[in-house]
UniProtKB/TrEMBL annotation:
Pfam families: DUF4470, zf-MYND
Name by which UniProt lists this protein: MYND-type domain-containing protein
Transmembrane portions of the chain: none
GO cellular component: nucleus
GO molecular function: DNA-binding transcription factor activity, RNA polymerase II-specific; zinc ion binding
Composition bias type Polar residues, residue spans: 798-808
Organism from which the protein derives: Orbilia javanica
Length: 1251
């Protein structure tokens, strides 16, 4: 219901992931059990890599972390494949057998027999839910609903049927070969696909040529490896999906994409450094991927043996699952809707309803940012460590062309203002940096801007950062603030969001996009990701944080008029009935006509009565249209490339009145008949029932479309309902087929055979096909509802709230900006905004929160009133990012604002009214304090858990180490390390550093990044002499910290590099002991400004915590002092910022190094890596600009070599299955089809031949 319904009988199947695996719990402290929700989970690479890269034996002597993964994908074949693979791993199947089954289009007879055996075991164990959950596999690989088991069992059975049908195997093989060839011709012809290279992260340019060769090989031969002949059996798991028995695999699919191909150059284990130097031989890529796959399998088996992992699977749409996971945390706020949905799918309630990690893959590209946030936020635990991970793969609005406007373009309003209202933020918006690298994207864009750009964002609940670290009690997160604000500017703010949500309804915008598409010669698919439910849920969330002093009802009424007249949508008024219905459902506002009895409303607003339908008193009614599948015939036979996936809507029309409804629910099946003998309009009490047809678009059943509509409208005489295609510049091509209204189906609302009216949404009876089963399902739902009501939030560390309402503070938002266009039809619009008309010359000024204020009322405290009356001195002190302490004489009050603040604090005193008011600007990213750049704190005292807020963890021992050997490899082989460090700089930071011939002093982040850069490149020896020891020295004070780098390692999850090092801050009480040892240490001094020195002291605990493998002790100094860093807030040189719990704990290779061994007892292991600008920053460097600036080379004139067909050097014949080419054994560069051709070509070839 959140995402508009589309005609989706065609689309792409994604059996394999298209981006490298990430550590799903990388921002979660290692002591905390992981409850992870994966929406749009795709394949299992992220789960397997997470289990591999995290310490498998726990931290120190502590208990091992438990993992519960809840995986959801709307494609049943994906979930069926995932369970199949994981079951094979648990059954100890050979890797060489599993790989072709999971990754290749064709497999051997041996693999085919193994697949049949495993499918047989899965089918035997899945005869019913109870059997599955009691099986050995089902105890680890659970299912969250009966429908999930039914769907995956359907696919397992279909695959088994294909494998058993040997008589048609040859025909299926030829069909797959033909489809592969067609995909290559349509999508790969005359172009080089380089997207696979991003999986090498910092080594992208090393493997570009090899990745192109492998991509072409895979799509030509259907196998990962080079083989003498194509295996005989087509893989059925690639050939059947929700789109039917056709090859719908996405044209960018490659089996190596999900692995870390940097390990082809920097292998796991003590292997040699193996630079590829642009080689086109893809053998190292295949080898490293299979090696990593084997490591993943071992990790999963160990987690099973240790009883630390459970995976729960759902076949469901992501947004629907969020609504069904918990009735209480349901984002739709409509219990009855979720009840029918959950019961229809047979939910088992064997899953968490709150999560500390939510990963949504790149669903933002397909479902929209607002829909994702509004759906998942109610499911995200409210504490410092919980987070949401989002990715984008399409350019979307996160486009470098938008630069710093990128986030504004995503939301349509000032992002900081929106985040204040939602309580969540993008981490790097506040911190100004991220530890996640996107260098591969910058490097790939050097070859031309393609349709993809991969980026990752991490979102967390807004915290109050303090110089002494985050506070464990999470007061700011757990409180529910309320806001007062000016009605007019908030209307302008919400109207701007509405305009963004429904941009494609703006005719001017649509025509501009059409013109751009014609100029580029490409089709723009006008898919709208948002429905009126999206806007209603946003209003619901804003209402929850709105002060009772704001006239909410008046605001919504005026907002409705502004939307109709000022937002550019020509059809907004046609959706007003739907918006009002949804607002009523979500408790936003009930409009007057929905308060009236429907019969009275029909008379008042429709000017005509129905047939005396006074018995129907519900304000809303569910309408379900049963559309025969033949109504879609003309769409089914059309080429999908010409129309894309058109959006559908239900229309209600009566005379000249018409209303559209896009918040639809769709099912496949036939409604059960009901006994409705009474005359007149029939509205069924309760939920109509049907049996789901899992064949979907390839079946023969009706398609059921349902939505909630105002009852009064269907009471009107001659009310007609229809299902139509939403009009866009693209769908206008369908007018000839469906007429100007583009109706697919229409009927009278009184036609009981085609239209069903009911008080609830239809209920699928496939999993509750008896009254007793339905009653039991409803009771289970109610029991779970009550249980969830008692545990709505994670309250393990929650302290009592100051008042019973849970509202801790009320703030006033001082908003600026408003829509300036005046409309003579609505005079009161001139009053909106409440301010002067100083910006009247602009069409619009962007509405945003400029300042935020808090009023301290002292009226109830006589002693405070006395101080105020006696004119006691009043002042303020700012603490941390968002706390201000108001001083009134000897007393004070701390006020924590819901978003970081900055700038001048204004004080207003009303002695007669007995209050003090402070207001301050909202943080704008300028002059960020050190502790906001690098927040860290105690996140759970009982677990002795310390965690950086903005830097992800890395398991150094499972990260490949770069062998630096300049006697075997020239400096150019390690230049990629310099590139990573270089791309950590923004354009401005690079300009800052280049402006100074010596160490740059000025901008803090420029200084820090230059120091990190120098450590990395000087350790490798590619710039200056090689060093392992570095002493940081503060100007005017001297040395304060030793950094001893033992290795450079690949940060696989962050697609970056990190220095595996010993960190030794110089402490006043130990400097005399270590000084003699330092004198014998050949080190490189690195000079820092006083500000940078403080930043390094602030950062050092984060470097340590991100790779910690030990427990903090019960007497840890962090816990005793409640300060992280330990030397905060002064960060004085001579005081250690790091606790002593991890001192001396290093792996053997450190202790075997005689240079650092004597100092290890004073040092702590750390992972020091580059810090990057946010991926949406315009200040990101571009490889084309960078190389042009350095060497004068114009990359726009360079192209990637086109894939070459393998042909005989003499006769030019291509290689075929029957005619294999063989290389000249000496030079290995030239290929011939026969000895005769080689002899014929010898005279020409011997000139370049090298023996």
């Amino acid at each position: 219901m959140l995402h508009p319904e589309i005609f989706d009988n065609h689309g792409f199947y994604y059996p394999i992931g298209n981006s490298p695996a990430i550590n799903l719990v990388g921002y979660l402290p290692p002591e905390i059990d992981a409850e992870v929700l994966l929406l749009g989970c795709g394949d299992v690479r992220n789960i397997l890599f997470t289990l591999f890269t995290e310490p498998s034996d726990g931290i120190g002597n502590g208990a091992q972390r438990k993992y519960h993964f809840t995986c959801c994908d709307f494609e049943g074949a994906v979930i069926a494949r995932n369970i199949l693979l994981l079951a094979m791993i648990l059954k100890n199947e050979e890797t060489t057998t599993m790989w072709p089954i999971y990754y290749d289009f064709f497999m051997s007879e041996k693999c085919s027999q193994a697949l049949k055996r495993h499918l047989g075991e899965l089918l035997s164990a899945s005869e019913d839910v109870d059997s599955w959950l009691k099986s050995n596999i089902g105890k680890v690989l659970t299912v969250g609903s009966k429908s999930t088991l039914a769907v995956v069992r359907h696919f397992w059975g279909a695959w088994m049927k294909d494998l058993n049908d040997k008589g048609r195997e040859g025909q299926r093989r030829k069909s797959v070969e033909r489809e592969l060839s067609n995909i290559v011709k349509e999508h790969h012809h005359n172009r080089s696909v380089i997207s696979l290279a991003r999986s090498a992260g910092p080594l992208t340019l090393e493997i570009v040529q090899a990745s192109i060769e492998h991509f072409n090989h895979y799509w030509k031969h259907g196998t990962t490896d080079r083989q003498s002949q194509r295996p005989p059996v087509p893989n059925p798991t690639f050939c059947l999906s929700k789109f039917g028995k056709k090859l719908s695999v996405h044209y960018g699919t490659n089996p190596l994409s999900g692995f870390h191909l940097s390990t082809a150059v920097v292998p796991f284990g003590p292997s040699d450094f193996q630079p590829m130097h642009g080689s086109s031989d893809f053998t190292p890529l295949v080898k490293c991927a299979k090696q990593e796959f084997e490591l993943w399998c071992q990790a999963f088996r160990k987690a099973r043996d240790d009883n630390t992992v459970t995976i729960c699977f759902f076949v469901d749409d992501a947004l629907g699952l969020c609504g069904n996971l918990s009735p209480v945390t349901d984002p739709t706020g409509i219990k009855e809707i979720n009840e029918t949905n959950s019961i229809s799918k047979g939910y088992l309630y064997n899953h968490p309803n709150q999560f500390n990690v939510i990963d949504v893959s790149n669903l933002i590209d397909h479902l929209g940012t607002y829909n994702i946030l509004l759906s998942v936020l109610p499911l995200l635990r409210k504490n410092h460590t919980s987070y949401l991970n989002t990715e984008t793969l399409l350019h979307h609005e996160f486009d470098l062309d938008h630069g710093t406007e990128a986030l504004y373009n995503v939301f349509g309003v000032d992002p900081a203002s929106l985040f204040t209202l939602l309580g969540i933020t993008v981490v790097d918006l506040i911190c100004g940096q991220t530890s996640i690298s996107h260098i591969s994207e910058h490097q790939l864009e050097a070859f031309g801007k393609g349709p993809q750009r991969h980026s990752r964002l991490v979102w967390k609940w807004i915290s109050s950062f303090q110089p002494g670290g985050l506070s464990e009690n999470c007061a700011l997160i757990l409180q529910r603030p309320e806001f007062a604000y000016d009605e007019g500017t908030m209307i302008a703010f919400l109207a701007a969001i509405y305009k963004k949500l429904f941009t494609i309804e703006n005719h001017t915008w649509a025509m501009q996009q059409l013109q751009k598409s014609l100029q580029k010669g490409s089709l723009i698919n006008f898919i709208q990701h948002n429905s009126r439910t999206t806007f209603s849920l946003l209003l619901q969330r804003i209402k929850k944080v709105t002060s009772k002093t704001v006239d909410w009802g008046s605001l919504v009424e005026k907002l409705t008029v502004v939307i109709a007249y000022e937002c550019g949508s020509l059809i907004a008024s046609c959706f007003q009935q739907e918006q009002d219905a949804l607002n009523h459902l979500h408790g936003v506002k009930t409009t007057d006509y929905l308060r009236d009895h429907p019969a009275i409303a029909a008379f008042k607003y429709g000017r005509q009565m129905g047939l005396g339908e006074h018995r129907h008193s519900n304000a809303l009614t569910c309408i379900t249209i049963s559309v025969p599948i033949k109504a879609f015939h003309k769409l089914l036979i059309r080429d999908s490339k010409t129309i894309g996936n058109p959006q559908l809507q239900i229309n209600l029309a009566c005379g000249s009145m018409a209303n559209h409804f896009c918040a639809l629910r769709r099912s496949f099946g036939k409604l059960d008949a009901v006994d409705a003998s009474e005359p007149g309009l029939f509205i069924q009490q309760g939920a109509p029932t049907f049996k789901e047809d899992f064949d979907g678009w390839i079946g023969t059943s009706d398609i059921l479309y349902s939505c909630m509509v105002p009852t009064w409208f269907i009471l009107l005489n001659s009310c007609e309902a229809s299902l139509s295609i939403v009009s866009t510049p693209v769908t206008s091509l369908l007018v000839d087929d469906f007429g100007p209204l583009m109706n697919l189906f229409e009927a009278s609302v009184r036609d009981r055979g085609k239209v069903r009216l009911s008080t609830e949404f239809p209920l699928n009876k496939s999993f509750c096909d008896s009254p007793e089963a339905l009653k039991s399902a409803r009771e289970s739902y109610q029991i779970k509802d009550k249980a969830f009501n008692t545990t709505k939030d994670d309250k393990s560390n929650q302290k009592p709230t100051p008042n019973s309402s849970g509202v801790q503070s009320e703030y006033k938002l001082l908003m600026v900006g408003r829509h300036q266009r005046q409309s003579p039809q609505i005079p009161w619009l001139q009053m909106l905004g409440g301010g002067s008309n100083q910006h009247a010359h602009n069409e619009t000024t962007r509405p945003k929160i400029s300042r935020i204020s808090y009023r301290w009322s002292v009226e109830s405290d006589k002693s405070l009133v006395k101080l105020l009356e006696d004119k006691a001195p009043i002042s303020t002190t700012k603490f941390g990012s968002s706390t201000i302490r108001i001083h009134l004489g000897p007393t004070s009050k701390a006020v924590t604002f819901p978003f970081p603040i900055c700038g001048e604090i204004k004080i207003s005193v009303a002695r007669k009214s007995k209050f003090i008011e402070i207001d301050t600007p909202l943080y704008d990213g300028d002059k960020t304090p050190i502790y906001c750049h690098f927040p860290i704190g105690i996140t759970n005292k009982s677990h002795r858990s310390i965690s950086p807020w903005s830097i992800h963890r890395i398991n150094l021992d499972n990260s490949p180490s770069v062998l630096i050997d300049l006697t075997k490899h020239d400096k150019g082989s390690y230049e990629w390390i310099n590139s990573v460090a270089t791309f950590s700089l923004s354009k401005q930071e690079r300009a800052n550093i280049n402006s100074s011939p010596t160490k740059y002093f000025g901008d803090l982040m420029s200084e820090i990044k230059e120091t990190i850069h120098m450590i990395l490149v000087r350790y490798t020896g590619i710039q200056g002499s090689k060093h392992s020891a570095f002493v940081l020295s503060c100007v005017g004070i001297g040395g304060y910290m030793l950094i001893y780098v033992k290795n450079i390692r690949i940060d696989l999850s962050g697609q970056s590099i990190t220095a595996d090092c010993a960190l030794l801050p110089f402490e006043d009480n130990t400097i005399s002991q270590i000084a003699p040892m330092l004198l014998n240490l050949h080190n490189a001094p690195l000079t820092n400004s006083p500000e940078e020195s403080k930043a390094w002291l602030q950062l050092s605990p984060s470097w340590v915590e991100r790779c910690r493998t030990w427990e903090h002790k019960p007497n840890c100094q962090y816990l005793k002092t409640s300060r992280v860093p330990l030397s905060a807030p002064d960060l004085r040189i001579g005081d250690s910022p790091i606790c002593s719990c991890g001192k001396g704990i290093f792996p053997k290779e450190f202790h075997d190094d005689p240079v650092i061994k004597p100092l290890l007892r004073y040092a702590t292991r750390a992972a020091l890596g580059p810090l990057f600008p946010p991926p949406y920053s315009k200040e990101l460097q571009n490889l084309q600009e960078l190389i042009a600036a350095v060497s004068g080379i114009n990359l726009s004139t360079l192209t990637v070599a086109e894939p070459k067909e393998r042909v005989c050097a003499a006769c030019g014949k291509e290689e075929t299955e029957d005619r294999k080419l063989k290389k000249c054994v000496a030079c290995m560069n030239i290929e011939y089809c026969s000895k005769e051709c080689q002899k014929k070509d010898w005279k020409a070839h011997k000139k370049t031949h090298k023996s």
